[in-house]
């Protein structure tokens, strides 16, 4: 893990632990549940080995927040991101399509709750293009016994598909990171001067 990813991992692991501790004090705090889910979503990007497990935990926390407050637009948006990540990690198109549909539904609900939010609008727009990106990504990957004319060509194809995947994940991570950071900033504001 490079230094930048290590810093991100440490930051979001701290956020996860803080949210877990806050949950013990107040399990009905939907802002905290949303931060917890967002931190888990970020951690899933830092830790590829446990990515799916962390995504499932993130979905669980975000769904818990929505059971307490079904109109919580930032939880709806984070849930859309979690399902988008699930889809991008899915090897089967049918499974991925199901996740993309769920993501679109959650992005639409977030837009309905906060219609002026440009980030939610962009996420909804991307969710309509995501299946196409998924298809391109999986189409560019070598499948089974596909004939290869040169190993350099295959390596370039793998690098391009890998770059596309990391570009998509990078934008999703950035967006979730901003939401988590803003949530932390709101809850840890210094007292006003006297």
Structure, described:
The protein has 194 residues and is mostly helical. 80% of the residues lie in helices and 0% in strands. It has helices spanning 3-25, 30-46, 51-68, 73-89, 93-113, 118-140, 151-187. The longest helix is centred in the C-terminal third of the chain and has 37 residues, at 151-187. The radius of gyration is 18 Å and the shape is globular. The termini are far apart.
The overall average pLDDT, rounded, is: 83
Q: Helical proportion?
A: over 70%
DSSP strand tally? 0
Over all CA atoms, what is the radius of gyration? 18 Å
Summarize the helices and strands and which ones pair or pack.
Layout lengths: L2 H23 L4 H17 L4 H18 L4 H17 L3 H21 L4 H23 L10 H37 L7
Helix pairs in contact: 1-2, 2-3, 2-4, 2-7, 3-4, 4-5, 4-6, 4-7, 5-6, 6-7
